[in-house]
Amino acid sequence: MEQLKPNSLQLNAYREIKRRIATLVYRPGEQINTARICAQLKIGRTPVHLAIHRLELEGLIEILPRRGVVVRPIDHAEIMEAVEARLLVEPQVAALAAARASEREFAAIRAALDGIAPHLATGDSEKFMEADCDFHRILARSARNRPLGDLLAALHERCMRVYFLSVSRNEHDVRIMKEHEAIFEALTSRDSTAASDAMRRHIESLRKNIRPLLTS
Length: 216
Fold this sequence. Notes:
- By secondary structure, the protein is mainly alpha-helical.
- The protein is built from eleven helices and two strands; from the N terminus they run αααββαααααααα.
- A hairpin with a 3-residue loop joins β1 (61-64) and β2 (68-71).
- It is elongated.
- The relative contact order is 0.13.
């Protein structure tokens, strides 16, 4: 078997630790045992430590005196600010996508949307969240505005743990599917106003759904 290069090891460690944080395997405020991670991932200490420092820069991990590596608690105000920023940006991105997306991109968005439903049926919240993010990422890419796409990607990253909690609530999953279908219909109709409105309703629904999660 080909040996992984050091950069690949670091990337693998980074992705796996980040996945565990996003899906609450590592809970907010929990101390992370780096030796255990090394053993679980069968990766040496250096790639794991480099991954942890990268996650610290992203605001997901804190390195504290006498406590070591700790998962950063969810900042309720920061999450609501990120959702507010999405509300300002993403409807415009949807409007641009309605005007600029190619038929091939519409097909890719449709495929992403169809990929969500099976995970709704199985109740796999992690896969559901990944497929949901694919839908939004492909839609943003089809707007053909890289700065807006990068901004949205950063906003989504900030909220992944709360998104995971949100999609773990089955009643919201069904609403997500209906809201996505409304967005897609507006996109393929080349109706920028309807696409913007549908995306705005979708994000408002998310904001309404996550607010009690942040205050409980």
